[in-house]
TrEMBL record:
Keywords linked to the UniProt accession: Membrane, Transferase, Transmembrane, Transmembrane helix
Protein known as: Glycosyl transferase family 2
Keyword Cytoplasm recorded: no
Membrane-crossing segments per the record: 250-271
Pfam families (alphabetical): Glycos_transf_2
Domain annotation Glycosyltransferase 2-like: ranges: 5-134
GO molecular-function term, one example from the UniProt record: transferase activity
UniProt xrefs under InterPro entries: Glyco_trans_2-like (IPR001173), Nucleotide-diphossugar_trans (IPR029044)
Amino acid sequence: MKLGILITTYNDGDIILRCLDSIYNQLDNLNFPVYVVCVDDGSDSPLTYPHFDIIRTEHRGRSYARIEGLKKILAEDCTHFLFLDSDMVLPSGFFKKLQTVVENYDSDAFIIPEAAFSIYNNFWTKVKVFERNLYRVNYCKESGNIEAARLWKVLSFPGFVEGLEAFEEIQPTILGIKKGLKIIKTQEIFIYHDEKKVTLRDLLRKKNSYFCCMLESGKCSKWDIIKRYYFFRPHLYHKENLKKYIRHPVLTIGVVLMYLILTLNFLWVSISQNFVKKGMMKK
């Protein structure tokens, strides 16, 4: 096995350095090579990191940055590759456990659970961390799976969708499922994911941007969006999560409220765009 790791960054400050350090600090005494490429998507202050391959591009968005990084992974003849967000951190012993997973399971790709955390303690941050950790249950059903497979056999990877800048990390998984690839969720390894500080205003602004991007791109259908949307996610009704709801009723109410607000926001964006398109057609 030769593992390639792809990270993208844009104006992430020290967050990306924490991610890179969590990788670099584990590379000693491994019995397989690891190639790491980080694509700086035109940050205001260029990223420097002496231990890895850093590529700087003009700012075009994460999908283009990932495609550029994937070219380097392919050129290095990696057998497997892992793509990460800049706000992710690898726990100690990650690579040795990853090697065991790859050797023990014959799979085209692996969904790796994410353990959400944040140093902030305001209400909406706690709700988002609680909600993100609901995904950690051992659930992986093709028709309803919303999680992105981040660890792939290079030869099986269907590619990133060029120009799609919202929920783009899930698209290779969806394409892989449609092609009949074997994608499993592993519980042997996990990745820390920093939710940072979450406010309702920022969350609405972020999701509104994502919804507009998806609907305007035409690269994923509304039905594909809706059937994987919030209340339709089957893992929410897993018995392990039902127990969490009983233990944390306030956070559960917060998740329901957040989903209702984001659902209404999605419907408003969709309806508004339909009106705009009809107006343009009349002109």
